Amino acid sequence: MPLRPLDQSSKLKNVLYEIRGKALDEAARLEADGYSVLKLNTGNPAAFGFDAPHQIVRDVVAAIPSAHGYTDSRGILSARRAVVTRYETEPGFPQLDVDDVYLGNGVSELITMVLQALLDEGDEVLIPSPDYPLWTAMTSLSDGRPVHYRCDEAAGWQPDLEHLRSLITPRTKAIVVINPNNPTGAVYSREVLEGIAAIAREHSLLLLSDEIYDRILFDGAKHTPMATVAPDLLCLTFNGLSKTYRVAGYRSGWLVVTGPRDHAKGFLEGITLLASTRLCPNVPAQHAVQAALGGVQSIEALVAPGGRLHEQREVAYTGLTSIPGVTCVRPDGALYLFPRLDPEVHEIHDDSRLVYDLLVSEHILLVQGTGFNWPEPDHLRIVTLPEARVLAEAVERLGNFLSSYRQ
Question: Transmembrane region positions (predicted)?
Fold first, then answer.
């Protein structure tokens, strides 16, 4: 008797994550055949020689003998206290208690938990375009409807507030803010954040603020936490250790709840319920939080002029903008560039095919702009983590490829 076919759940029909999409499968095949592939598709610091701060590693190693049991479902007290202390030093940040903090297996798990606790079928979430695609994917997986508000490239990729406002319906539940932004590297102005808060206030919307890159800032850029401009609104702030502290593999993130709670008791109880069903975050990585958030912040030297991250951004930006038909907004934060290919020069109809053809020809793996829910096939995202000489060579090869590439 033949076995009954097993297909994937219909819930996955609209769930896409092109950062690790089909092109990555081809990259793996090329590597299996002995080729070296430069993977500029994921912001994975360890792959490019960024070592974790030794204090963090030491504390995790020291904790391992006693880290083999479950903890409180929110996370260990010392780590949550360290998160509270971090925000107590942030001017204007609303008052916090340790019970307002949830630790997670990376921010990704916390995003999933929050959207599952929030959404009923057909509920809408306003998400920036371009976006970090996990927000769109998890909204869909939670039976919600992602609705994308435009960010304006001509205005340095700041959100278009009028477009955002025009998308609100009776089913809208929340606004997602990604600041500093992935994939554009934009750092939002206080005025724009105040505008988003005003819209949320007018329509009684939840604010979901992804601030994982809040300390990766260049050239004097200032990050304003969303919670500081909306203390009277329920705001959930997401952050973690993956990027600033170069321990992406530890999967150590946190969620902070600020603002009024009485109108959202059921929703917050839902988050606590889901935190309990996963039992607890992975315990060794929880012991990294206190060491990371206290003491010297090593990221500051990396993003300052002369620092590795600063110089790599400069090399990539200069190289990209020297390619005929390519323009790029200089990013103020994060680890990416999001260059535009002028359709009058580079007539691209399918940017996923462009990424695949570049991989096969040059063994460089990027991500197409449509993978970040950008509507036109005219952008690419490039990770700026490789050493400057490697980035310079990769951008030069990209330029040479584009000079003769046709679809």
Answer: none
